[in-house]
Amino acid sequence: MTSDQPEHARTGSEITRTGSGPAPTGTDVVLEARGVTKHFPLRRTARDLFARERRSVHAVDDVSLRLRRGTVTALVGESGSGKSTVARLLAQLYPLTSGEIRLGGEPVVAGRGRSFRRYARRVQLIFQDPFASLNPVHTVRYHLTRALKIHGRAGSGEKELEENLAALLNRVQLTPPQQFLDKFPHELSGGQRQRVAIARALGADPQVLLADEPVSMLDVSIRLGVLNLLRDLKERLHLAILYITHDIASARYFADTTLVMYAGRIVEGGDSERVTQHPAHPYTQLLIASAPDPDRIVADEEQEESGTGEPPSLITPPAGCRFHPRCPQAMERCRTELPPRFELPEGQWAACWLYDGAAANGTDPVADRTAVKEATR
Ligand code: SF4
Predict the structure, then answer these.
(1) Which of 76, 145, 310, 366 is most buried (most C-beta within 10 Å)?
(2) CA 198 to centroid of ligand 1, rounded, Å
């Protein structure tokens, strides 16, 4: 390997950035979803025999997003909103019902075998449960060696392999590496197991990490350490990270951009600080009002104002805006017309009829609405 090769082409022992490559701009799109839709057909029952159409779960509908080099994008939503399905679609674990995924600007459909491995070399998925994602009968050494070998990064001999294994463990701050290499998953803490899972993903030398609720099964005390590790990887390796979470507070802390998903659709997006401090969509407001915050004692009344109720069935999702059965601000048109994406100041956007025509009047409708709410409290 030569020093002028891109970092993602090097072996594990060489992955410390030397500064010789071009500095990332933070704007280059690595992975993109365009209008991605996934419907899972249901098994036919006797009741369906005479039905014209086969019923299906509308898990993801018309999702578009871009993951940029050196940035974290959070995809936030409650359980069943379809965010994990988006991660699996981006990882090409499921075929799309419609839409397109582009890697480095090129449309991709990873099949099986070699073409899937080529794709996985650039896009890696980290699962929520590190214990389930590691084989309990194999050691850390086995998991990491296998990843390096599959992706052709094991090196040319024993010595190089050992160096690459040590580099991976150093990269995820499991040091000294010799202390962890021959341990089994059950001998590690939850946080250490998730670090091994991250090291295994790094064994492919990816450009994109899809982290599906990477800290939700960890003790609260060690979540921050794993998030800080992911942030360190973003900065040092310039990875594009999709951070899937139901915890909007952690998105503010960790992500550059936040997208909010409800019932299979993305309903709001923008800079994380802006989305979490000035949420535009009533569903985002509900998520924030529901998040535990020691600085803010939420009165029942405020919770009511933000909305209540359960997520809808995705087999027969509500017509119009899918949030309308729960939305305290729903209007007549919300029940029949699907709101498009309305652009708001500072790069924020929301798919909500409340902002129809907002761009035309030149004010900040989100700040205005917040101010009215504060004044009338
Ligand atoms: Fe509520 Fe209507 Fe906006 Fe949907 S479009 S969030 S129902 S106001």
Answers:
(1) 76
(2) 39
